[in-house]
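fyi for ur records
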Amino acid sequence: MTRLAIPLLFLAALQTEAQEAAQGTASRGGLSGFLFLPESEVLPVGHLMVQGRLEYLDSEAASNPFLLLPLTVTWGAVENLEIGGEIPFYLNDPLERENVAGDLTLGCGWLYETARGGSAIVLRGSLRLPTGETGRDRGTELEVGAATGTTFRLFRLQAAASYVLNGGDDPFENDIEDYSRFSIGGASYVAEDIQVVLAMEGTTTGELGMSGSGVLYAFGNMAVFGTLRVGLSGTEDATLAGGLSWTGSGF
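which gave:
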């Protein structure tokens, strides 16, 4: 009887852990949010989020469309602080380089303040390392900024802004360029397990885009999402992405 009780208790603990794990997705760079819309939230302590997505990009900068597979990991390290990372893999390199890995991005987000009604401010920072290819990837970047949001019933309004320093493949030899990045949008539940996201984002270098996403939270602690982005200016004309995110607790 004792031998039977131990595995039953173990399975019950795993089930409880999965039920308590918060569902969610990651934005570009590995921190909490939607693909083109950073969130003013962080993972709870001990929660781990692993995400993979497939992107189809049709860009003016490349002669042919190409496929990208970014992998993301986000962890709630301590109270009000999450750390994350992302590395993309080129499934068909438009420049036909041997290195399929892109630039590695490491970041952290700190929940600075919360208020009634779901309003919050998260301070965010990230470092992009030039592990990719010159001419294909952006190279070294240091980015600092903040994301804020507030909730109106089932609708959440989000906005984010950041300042970026870019040093290319060698920041010690190249000139440092600076620019700002911004995004604004909203997310709303249209059904119990379905969330719709609309966003506009861009940079002060002239890049501007609009995106729409759908997220399905119907598989326990997993989320399935799809995104379509249309470039309004700059080099990226269109991006079609789909992915899967898993969140667990106790890490």
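Residues 2-20 form the longest helix (19 residues). thats all i got for now
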